[in-house]
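Q: Hi! New to this. If I give you a protein sequence and the SMILES for zinc ion, can you show me the bound structure?
A: Yes, paste them in.
Q: Okay, here:
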Amino acid sequence: MSEDIKGQYVLANRLTEIIDSGRIGHAQLFEGKNEDGAFAMALAYVQYLNCQNKKHYHEGEHQGLRADSCGECPSCKKFEQLMHTDLHFVFPNAVTPKVKGSSVSSDDFQEEFRDYVLSTKARGSMGSWFRHLGIENKQGMIRERDADNLTKELSLCSYEGGYKIVLIWMAELMNNTAANKLLKTLEEPSEKTLLLLVSERSEGMLDTILSRVQRVVVKPEVDDSAQSLSSKAQACTAEERQLFVDWLRMLFKLKMTNLSEHVDKLSTMGRERQKIFLGYALEVMRGCFLNSVAGLPVNLESGDEKFDAAFPRMIGTGNIEMIEQSLEEAMYAIERNANPKITFMKLSFNLSRGLKR
Ligand SMILES: [Zn+2]
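A: Thanks. Here is the predicted structure of the protein with zinc ion bound:
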């Protein structure tokens, strides 16, 4: 799977960790653009889940990827061809010149869909799928019939002893009747079943559905940490970058007197600047992580070579997840107009705790 999700290893590591720990939610939503790998990540996820010979790597190997499906066991082979009997797809569809009638559903197009996904490496757009299906002029939808079929599918036992999986691609194109039926299925999950939703515009989905799924956000890929860091760095002013580095040093030592003064500065930057600042912080932390586990270049630009060399080693598999989560929470809080002073103070404590791990 690693080829399909290049540039998404931080997220992939978080997902394989969840699978390994057995805390697998029965309904999950992968949110993000197909071109950024949201669908590819969902497919890699289910392949890993059912792989009979999961590979685990040592730190520093495989560019920081901690685990991967083997690609060779019978289950993996079937997943790679999208031919696994326990994997069922639901996607927008419509009456085509070949398939007519009022009862048309995803079940009528499983083969076309497999061909399409394999040929686009799961990165195609909705428009290109509709062209592939020959329904350019019609609105493809996920309808009641699809919801009925997927409920039936999930009620069956797995054929091969693993998870029974239904994957809904472009879940935002579900009509209301289908969505309400799906809701019932979400409320009464059966054992060892997994419902995966993939969506580019989850804001178009019912809140009642969103509140019942675990959400996995897939962001644009990071091909080269140094390069993407420099574009974020350009969005930050030199002064802000200095603020960031000074902050990291304080967190490292947790000097309280300086910290509260520093948090004052951060909390008066204005929300737009704060968002850019936190985005930059997230990129730097990811860059440091890739530097420490895979030796990829990162430049903190603190003006202090010793610090630039030493700091990235503080970030590893033991704390990257917590650090990312803390930063993302803070971004979310700032977006929702939370009190910036409290937000940055809380974030400072969280990061300092993370760095000590
Ligand atoms: Zn395998």
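A: The first helix runs from residue 9 to 21. Let me know if you'd like me to explain how to read the tokens.
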